[in-house]
Each structure stands twice: as structure tokens, then as C-alpha cells.
Design the sequence.
């Protein structure tokens, strides 16, 4: 497993506004989209491309284009939806599959209530988007769904991560998918999880901050 923590003042600046409890939902949504576009730039560094011959107004030349099969973006409902627009801006030709995973607020165990992934993900590069890598349980289940369907690689893009969650995903991968290519891209690696499973300092409940408390 590779872990990439973005180290860029613009990202930290935007994250600081997100963390601030006074930031209202409309600004929060806008910033999430901007942040994802910045993180997606890093996350797509290994996206599969092929050569293409084109003619510029001056000469014939060879460039690169995204190759087939197209990448698959998987937002984890509901908070991951807030990251979808930013991700598709950078990968407009990607397809989108959906996973609805909710964690039980007492046990912190993830529960899958919707799975709209294609049955066959052979040779596909999968990009899972979820703002918060907290316990790692949701990401572990999502990664399992992708690899069980034959995905070639999985890249997870999260705004914030907790060290406990990163360790959990790492040990899950080592025991279940040791040969698979997984990259985790974080906007920041925070200090810890609290007793309620929230990332500290974090930004609170990402879904609530994006969409309010109606569920
Ligand atoms: N999910 C959230 O929305 N926030 C956290 O801090 C942890 C999990």
C-alpha cells in the first residue's frame, strides 16, 4: 500500500476553512470540490494512458489519451457524493459506480445498504472517494468489493485520515490482498480518532457539513 499525504499550502489553507465550524454548507461544498480536484491531480498520476497520433496546426505528433477500459470512480454515499464533481472534472471520461455504506454509530462497524458496482471490473482502475478515512472499515469493505470483481488497482482519495484508519487498511491489505496495487491519497493525516470514532482535529461529520442532518 502506498500512502500519499498532500503537502501543499493551498490544500492546507482550504482544509483549514473546511475544519472551521463556522464554515456554512455552501462554502463547504465548494471547497470540497476544489480540494478534490487538487488531490485528484496527485491520485491520477498512474492513470493508464495510450499513445495517440494527432496533427497540430504545425505538424504531426504523438500525444497521450486515457486508455480503455475507462477508470471507475466510486463515491461512498453519502459524503463521497460531495467529492464526485471535483473528481469527474479531472476524469470526465470515467464511469461512476456507487456504494452506500453507513457505519453503526455505536459499534463503528460499516454496513452496506447499496452496491451499484459493475459485476466485472477486470483491468479497471478504481478510484474510491470518501472524505474521511476514520476507522478504515468502510474503505476495507469498498476495496474488497473492487478486488472481488477483478479490479486492477484501487486508489482511495480522502480529505482527512486518522493514523488508526491508515494502519487498519494497511494490515487488511497485507492479509487479504498482499499483491494488489492500492494507493491512498490524503489531504492531511490528522492526530487520532476520538472515542466516538471522529477524526481529531478533523472537521466533524462530513455528510452533515455537506448536506445537513436530514438523512
Ligand atoms: N466520518 C466523519 O464524517 N467524520 C469523522 O470525523 C469520522 C468519520
Sequence:
Amino acid at each position: 500500500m502506498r500512502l500519499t499525504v498532500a503537502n501543499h499550502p493551498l490544500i492546507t489553507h482550504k482544509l483549514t476553512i473546511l475544519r472551521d465550524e463556522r464554515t456554512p454548507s455552501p462554502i463547504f461544498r465548494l471547497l470540497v470540490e476544489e480540494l478534490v480536484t487538487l488531490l485528484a491531480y496527485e491520485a491520477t498520476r498512474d492513470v493508464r494512458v495510450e499513445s495517440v497520433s494527432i496533427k497540430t496546426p504545425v505538424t504531426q505528433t504523438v500525444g497521450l489519451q486515457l486508455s480503455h477500459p475507462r477508470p471507475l470512480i466510486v463515491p461512498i454515499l453519502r459524503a463521497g457524493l460531495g467529492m464526485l464533481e471535483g473528481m469527474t472534472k479531472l476524469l470526465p471520461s470515467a464511469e461512476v459506480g456507487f456504494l452506500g455504506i453507513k457505519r453503526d454509530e455505536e459499534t463503528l462497524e460499516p454496513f452496506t445498504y447499496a452496491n451499484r458496482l459493475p459485476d466485472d471490473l477486470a483491468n479497471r482502475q478504481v478510484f474510491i472517494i470518501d472524505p474521511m478515512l476514520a476507522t478504515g472499515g468502510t474503505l476495507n469493505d469498498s476495496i474488497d468489493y473492487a478486488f472481488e470483481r477483478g479490479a486492477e488497482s484501487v486508489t482511495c482519495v480522502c480529505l482527512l485520515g486518522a493514523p488508526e484508519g491508515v494502519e487498519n487498511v494497511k494490515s487488511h491489505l497485507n492479509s487479504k490482498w498482499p499483491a494488489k496495487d492500492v494507493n491512498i491519497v490524503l489531504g492531511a493525516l490528522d492526530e487520532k480518532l476520538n472515542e466516538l470514532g471522529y477524526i481529531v482535529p478533523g472537521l466533524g461529520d462530513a455528510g452533515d457539513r455537506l448536506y445537513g442532518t436530514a438523512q
In short: The CA atoms of residues 33 and 85 lie 6 Å apart. The chain has a mean pLDDT of 95. Residues 2-53+60-211 form a domain with the Rossmann fold fold (CATH 3.40.50.2020). The longest strand covers residues 153-161.
